[in-house]
Specification:
This protein has helices spanning 5-13, 17-35, 40-51, 55-82, 85-110, 127-139, 142-157, 161-185, 196-223. The chain is an all-alpha fold. The protein has a domain at 19-97 and 117-193. Helix 3 (40-51) runs antiparallel to helix 6 (127-139), helix 4 packs parallel to helix 6 and helix 4 (55-82) packs across helix 7.
Length: 225
């Protein structure tokens, strides 16, 4: 028995191609199912894509940030956050303030149609400002921690150790694909946004969405008190 036991343990620790692909696909499907929704981060990436402002930097940042958060969740951050409800409330309130402020800015833009047209060449928003806003939408958004870290991380942590890397890769690839589609695919919608009226509608929807999300976050935080 001592002769074949180590070999068997090695086989169990080395996933087959079918197992790896199954877990990779699981991570991709789960990540896409959570990220393909109207939210603060998606709305920001879409608007940057429509305006063609720092699209590459914003897409790259959001994709890398998601990959890091997914990996952190799978490797233990999900459990740590689940054991600290007070931290979750602080994140919710901070996110609510930011979303309310950005929603107010979007509604103010909607009332000034002359300033809504896309800025060719990304001249409107500098890279530093764009990345700062992308970081705020990513790190001050409690839904990122609830979905990306807690949910995706918890499910990924249930995978065998040898397969967790494949799960992280699948979820991260799905996230990168979606942000790339939002940022670079937005140019196909550009003809629809050639008129200020279309930007008014978009920014009005974004503003209202942000305010609703902010109110929901405040309610969620107060319910946990």
């Amino acid at each position: 028995m001592a002769d074949w036991q180590p070999a068997r343990m090695l086989t169990l620790a080395t996933p087959t191609t079918a197992q790896a692909l199954a877990v990779l696909t699981h991570g991709m499907v789960l990540s896409l199912g959570l990220i393909v929704a109207i939210g603060a981060q998606n709305a920001f990436v879409l608007r940057q894509g429509l305006r063609r402002e720092q699209v590459g930097s914003v897409v790259l940042f959001c994709a890398l940030a998601d990959a890091v958060l997914i990996a952190a969740g799978v490797l233990g951050m999900a459990q740590a956050l689940g054991e600290r409800p007070g931290l979750a409330r602080v994140l919710a309130l901070a996110g609510a303030v930011f979303l309310a402020y950005y929603g107010w800015l979007a509604l103010r833009r909607a009332r000034q149609p002359g300033q809504l047209q896309a800025a060719p060449g990304g001249a409107g928003l500098g890279r530093g400002a764009a990345l700062a806003q992308a970081a705020a939408f990513t790190l001050l958004n409690p839904h990122v921690y609830l979905d990306t870290v807690l949910l995706v991380g918890s499910i990924g942590a249930q995978q065998p150790v040898a397969l967790r890397g494949w799960f992280i890769a699948g979820a991260a690839l799905a996230s990168a694909f979606w942000f790339g589609l939002l940022g670079y695919g937005a140019r196909w919608l550009a003809p629809w946004f050639a008129r200020p009226r279309a930007w008014q509608v978009l920014d009005s929807l974004i503003g209202l969405t942000m305010l609703v999300l902010s109110a929901l976050l405040v309610r969620h935080a107060l319910q946990g008190v």
